[in-house]
From TrEMBL, chains A, B, C, D:
<feature type="domain" description="Sulfatase-modifying factor enzyme-like">
    <location>
        <begin position="348"/>
        <end position="425"/>
    </location>
</feature>
<protein>
    <submittedName>
        <fullName>Ergothioneine biosynthesis protein EgtB</fullName>
    </submittedName>
</protein>
<dbReference type="Pfam" id="PF03781">
    <property type="entry name" value="FGE-sulfatase"/>
</dbReference>
<keyword id="KW-0408">Iron</keyword>
<keyword id="KW-0560">Oxidoreductase</keyword>
<dbReference type="InterPro" id="IPR034660">
    <property type="entry name" value="DinB/YfiT-like"/>
</dbReference>
<feature type="domain" description="DinB-like">
    <location>
        <begin position="23"/>
        <end position="156"/>
    </location>
</feature>
<comment type="pathway">
    <text>Amino-acid biosynthesis; ergothioneine biosynthesis.</text>
</comment>
<dbReference type="InterPro" id="IPR024775">
    <property type="entry name" value="DinB-like"/>
</dbReference>
<dbReference type="Pfam" id="PF12867">
    <property type="entry name" value="DinB_2"/>
</dbReference>
<dbReference type="InterPro" id="IPR051043">
    <property type="entry name" value="Sulfatase_Mod_Factor_Kinase"/>
</dbReference>
<dbReference type="InterPro" id="IPR005532">
    <property type="entry name" value="SUMF_dom"/>
</dbReference>
<dbReference type="InterPro" id="IPR042095">
    <property type="entry name" value="SUMF_sf"/>
</dbReference>
<dbReference type="InterPro" id="IPR017806">
    <property type="entry name" value="EgtB"/>
</dbReference>
<feature type="domain" description="Sulfatase-modifying factor enzyme-like">
    <location>
        <begin position="188"/>
        <end position="324"/>
    </location>
</feature>
<dbReference type="InterPro" id="IPR016187">
    <property type="entry name" value="CTDL_fold"/>
</dbReference>
């Protein structure tokens, strides 16, 4: 976010330069994710919701080509006439799309050709920026594209983990996670006064449309747990029959548990001995003091009920987070571990990074929410139904991508994100 | 609501008497719904979500038998040892249940036996009340059971309409709807200041747990349409390609539209000529000035987007409704038409009765919401996910059942309730 | 079959008289099935494949009205203009049809109205016959209609048993089955020479089109078990892990077993003690010496493999049966037990009636098979795929309906018919 | 078949030598199929029924490793301890298996590692053969493995075509098909006497267990079309409303057509102009004189009914084919075109190769059929249900693989094989 903030103050040519720098940095981060992966690894698609790495790489360039080059580059010609269709995700306004569940069938173009595409689009975009004089609207779109690419960086990690999980060899594709901190953060609750507060984003720095406008909310006094729920605590829930007691669950949640046969968080397994979980470094024993991860909203909600607490609202979370900011010690993608570490010290340990924290808030428009005109307006608004808000970023989120007003969202049954929970109570 | 209010002021024995009177009145209203129906009519089940009439009749007595007689009647013996299982809806804490989609397979007990059950439970309950001295908690449960029965009265109407719809004979089972009012209410918007408001129910009079506690919310200034959207207005949406333009729809809504092949509200049909709709009095031409009905949240939301407006939040709706109350001229179940009429005059015409109005609010717990202990606590809380709030009652709601804080809720794809919409804008 | 045979020899007016007699007898048998059933019982539909009793009753009259009265009655007017659609089963050539899975939603017409329909069609048909002079083609259609009604008599029993099974009260709707014979038929095999044989029906007496033409087949020497597999024998298969050993099953059969969770034949259940089964007389202990019943082709095939034998082909079965005929001691619908009894003595005990016997033959057209022109030609031919042949009739088949060449057919997963098996070996 | 026939006559050491030669030749043919494919191409899986190329390559080596090396190689150690699970197709007796629909998620092992596996198994198998002295049973298994690999060669082609079809780029991965023959074979029928015939395989040369034993069948006189149905003829069926007339279809076939929305054979498409089809050389105009291909049994059956004919039985086909043999001019995999050519001249043109010809025979065991003991016995027998027989081989079948008694089989809805039809009539 520091980087983003640095961009805005200097309008005019300086913003062109700053954006070019960010473009290069984001691109480098995307490419770094591909290290150690083969073209075959980048083909896998384990479910319609999780795309192949290659498709993600093509799609983030498609965004720049379609929304920037196509409208802003003199004498624009597409890199490939069919890529507009191949790499469109869900923008109905842009035209036909490869069906979501068929993305894993794109052996052609080869990964190398997609990397060439990415490089070419990058160069043409940098050339455009280099010439200067772009209208503010185009610069805003570039900034949106940079943030869009960061979102797909996180999805590359979570989707890939899901794909690899279906291989009984349980491949390791990143180094071992960092050794856990010696001391885990203590439990307990922090009290907040609430009152007439403001949440949402204001001002010129970048934020997604769904974070705007900043608006007033009334919040009753509340308490927020000093750290996320840990694996050890979640194990106590399991051992207490948490997955066998319908009275702890939302009705839809219980149905889902039965349908899917859930007995533990995603990626957990055990033979006769203790629980393990699959990580980007392969199978590993569970660290009791690390945050529980890969739980659905349903499981988070059931846990909270079992614990005599509840999930926070997104407004409570944001108000509590407003006084802090993601820092270099937090557990973000730049660390490269891609597995939530024990949270460090601090009043609200693990608030930033580590695991996304489920809230009890449905993902809905803020009062006065407005959608951007044109296809780019499909970015967020049309998904504002049947989803719940998560806050705070995860170990797979770039540090510069997150902020207090950031709203992530997934359906209540989703488990393949790095999703955990922090308790709240009145 | 008047009736409910009348009960509470006189605590002690007087409340026993008042509740006995209400029990008799509610029972009479349930039985009146069965007029003109055969035992075969009361067997039908067209989908898992819509129960047979006979099952509804058994279930409302099951509620009283299970939660009142079983715990409060000296020497209690069940009317039939298996009814506890047959007529349990979703109370996991009570034990086994006939699967929801199999309720239409209960040819035995016969309708007459279920009516005998209802009568016996009623008599025993009245005897219990007649003896007096029941603890407040038991009286509260009776009041809950009365309101519970009223909810099922509405479901009897909406479910039955859905069942009959699958019969190509399109049976008429109630008299023709009342002749429409000569003049429809005018369009336009009414402005509200918002500010720091209170919503939810407080005080001793009856309300469901989901309406409590009363709490403060901040509301920005807003406008609410002077009447619900009419059939004529909704036809303009259809004629403008509303069902063919994905950009007007939420993403999940568009998927549902495609999956179901929706081209118009439920129960609408036409051959070569103008649109008709199936009503409880059989097929009838569409009244352009009546409120559009049997639309899902998805359709309501798409219409609002098309109209350059939005759905209200439940807080906005409640604040607007707080100054008014359901009155004798409003279109409720007591009128017996079971089809929404043209709204009459008034500042917010048709706010009460007629059609339930979809809001843009997800059905979630209010701050400080608490669930009752025991199986009866499964009443509302466990459904607080994946559903949207509707407000104001319909032509099938008993007048005494509704109030400003009342929260109805259905999934965003549901269409078989009498559900319409009223626009809001900032 | 005796009755049918009696019809043909006296052509001309005598055939009119004979058919009128059979019509009356078949109608009486249909009505006898309704004894003890309420209109509600006749509404149930537990799956798309099993129709409500009321629908069966309407459909058999629809057959006569559509194929006889509509074409043959001077000045024909339909009993009800919509019954043509309501009671059409699968005759595409006749026009629209109530969807198969929605037959349980026809509360209107009431059962009484359907019985009136049946009576009226019967009277008009008898009047037509009384006038005499009908062409042979019309008389053939009446004979087809009589046999068609007998088929639906059996389906009334099997479908109703399936519907009632979903009611936890396990209703009994017929008297207790006859006391079992003291001595069960002995096991063992009967040897047959095979050679160049003829199967299929020839001559003027009635048979369905799928039994024609009579044709030559070469059959190798084979042996057929002296009686059907018994419950005791099937229990040994279960106790030997028959439902847990995929190597005993066809691949599709094993998949189906897993999908459905089969652990025993349909309608079998037990708590802690011995196995019981649901019968038309309610729950009853299993008779070890009675034929096993309500097994799918998959289970029959797995049992045979476990027993070191195989199912017979339909040609083997027919050749073995050709020398015998259904007799008064056999276990047919006229006995009213509707539950397979212990087979009596005889060289091939229980060959007729009791349980249908699965063969290893797919239901395919005989060489030279020809379909009747017009909609009535949809009777059999279009189902000749994905089904297996069963032979010999069951305890729910009318005795006069069965013959050696009779081919019944169901998909290999079907279990709700009275289906068992008899072993064969080379 | 010539090659196979060449193996058997010289028993003892000579058979070792001959098998080693065939092993090398078959391996070379498998590797030749990979030319022009990238590792990404070899990853695709478009449906559970169609496996990735890489999986096929691993599986054919798995067969040799599991059934030959594991039991016959002194001091056997598996190439990789988990490949036994990864590359098991459906042999329950061998243990756990990667779920069929997840084969496309095996990015690891890489294609190169699978090729290394293939090479290592080949070398070890050749060493085993080189040492000589293998029991006849082991030599039989090697011969089975060779034929097994040839079956997977054909599946590599048909599955890959299906995978690529989901890529809107419509990749071409083989050269253009050969120019069509100038003159198409003439239509007409050839008459056969039938009588007491023999079908099935006898003698020492290789055949699958499902082709045995040779046995007698009685066949009535019949006629077989002089060539397969052509694209032009099938177009006439389409133009005559063939896909809109339920009376032409089997009931299950019509349901499938409606469910899938079939309007033409698989891989056919058109915009405004004439029909095209997707081929291994990319999109191409339809050759009217080439055999129609990629039709299901349902479509073949409907076409035959429309044409006033029928499909042949497998016995008729085999008797007609017995006097001929696949020759060098026939359209087989060795030609490399992988697209059916116009049939050449001859009395029964196109009988061998080109397209598999659907028969009206269900895939069932021959009289006296016996399954091999052990897991290898799962090869054929357990699939003998719900499938129909195809005969004659296709343009993707190796010439040495086919013979008159060869029985291919697929479900009646399958279309992705090179399947066509030849008419028969009585």
């Amino acid at each position: 976010m520091a980087a983003v903030a640095a961009v805005r103050p200097f309008e005019g040519e300086d913003r062109h330069v700053a954006l070019a720098g960010r473009l290069r940095a984001v691109r480098a981060a995307t490419l770094a994710l591909l290290e150690g992966l083969t073209p075959e690894d980048c083909m896998m698609q384990s479910m319609a919701e999780a795309s192949p790495v290659k498709w993600h790489v093509g799609h983030v360039s498609w965004f720049f080509e379609t929304f920037l080059l196509e409208t802003g580059e003199p004498g624009f010609r597409p890199f490939h006439p069919r890529f507009r269709e191949l790499f469109n995700s869900y923008y109905v306004g842009v035209g036909a799309r490869q069906p979501r569940g068929w993305r894993g069938l794109l052996s052609r173009p080869a990964l190398q050709e997609v990397l060439d595409y990415q490089h070419a689009v990058q160069q043409r975009l940098l050339a455009l920026l280099g010439r200067g004089g772009l209208p503010a609207q185009a610069l805003d779109l570039i900034e949106l594209g940079i943030n869009h690419e960061q979102q797909h960086q996180e999805l590359i990690v979570t989707d890939l983990k899901h794909h690899f999980w279906h291989n009984p060899l349980r491949p390791a594709w990143r180094g071992s996670p960092a050794a856990p901190a010696e001391n885990a953060a203590p439990a307990g609750f922090v009290a907040f006064d609430g009152g007439l507060c403001e949440i949402g984003h204001a001002g010129p720095s970048f934020a997604f449309d769904n974070e705007r406008p900043r608006h007033r909310v009334w919040i009753a006094p509340f308490e927020l747990a000093a750290r996320p729920v840990s694996n050890a605590e979640f194990l106590a829930f399991i051992d207490d029959g948490g997955y066998r007691r319908p009275e702890l669950w939302l009705s839809d949640g219980w149905d889902e548990r039965c349908r899917q046969g859930w007995e533990a968080p995603l990626y957990w397994w055990r033979d006769d001995g203790p629980w393990h979980s699959y990580t980007v470094a392969g199978d590993a024993p569970l660290d009791p003091a690390a945050p529980v991860c890969h739980v659905s909203h349903y499981e988070a909600d059931a846990y909270a009920r079992w614990a005599g607490a509840r999930l926070p609202t997104e407004a409570e979370w944001e108000v509590a987070a407003a006084a802090t900011a993601p820092g270099p010690a937090d557990d973000f993608a730049e660390g490269g571990g891609f597995h939530p570490r024990r949270p460090g010290a601090g009043r609200l340990a693990g608030l930033w990074g580590g695991v996304w924290e489920w809230t009890q808030s449905a993902y809905l428009p803020y009062p006065g929410f407005e959608v951007a005109p044109g296809a780019v307006g499909e970015y967020n608004g049309k998904f504002m139904i049947n989803q719940m808000v998560l806050r705070g970023g995860s170990c797979a989120t770039p540090r510069s991508h997150i902020r207090a007003s950031y709203r992530n969202f997934f359906g209540p049954a989703a488990r393949w994100q790095f999703s955990g929970l922090r308790l709240a109570r009145k």
